[in-house]
Amino acid sequence: xxxxxxxxxxxxxxxxxxxxxxxxxxxxxxxxxxxxxxxxxxxxxxxxxxxxxxxxxxxxxxxxxxxxxxxxxxxxxxxxxxxxxxxxxxxxxxxxxxxxxxxxxxxxxxxxxxxxxxxxxxxxxxxxxxxxxxxxxxxxxxxxx
Length: 145
Description:
Layout: E1 9-11, H1 15-25, E2 27-32, E3 36-41, E4 44-52, E5 73-77, H2 81-90, E6 97-101, E7 104-112, E8 118-128, H3 130-133, H4 138-144
Parallel strand pairs: 1-4, 5-8
Antiparallel strand pairs: 2-3, 3-4, 6-7, 7-8
């Protein structure tokens, strides 16, 4: 199998609110129908997200139910989480988790979308505690490069 892309699709009763939320966050619609919206990040169009209304007659039963939000996390990796936090705070976003540094080398904060999906906005800050450093695999650098 050769995977060429991957993106989440949020099936939501709050379709209109979700579309407005993700557009305000910085996503741009590339398909914007009454029941489905495909959004991309303009600077990196491989960063994508789909929104779909539940119960649409073109979809099989497995794709009919709306998300409950609980247990769903979408991570947006950014160049600088501090700058992103300032930008989103100025745009009026409410934070579910305030900006903080983690011992595994990440600076991040979290938002909630209208469906309760957690959005973790994160950047690497380079300060990795020894108990976490041992878990980073040598081969990972080559794969992710």
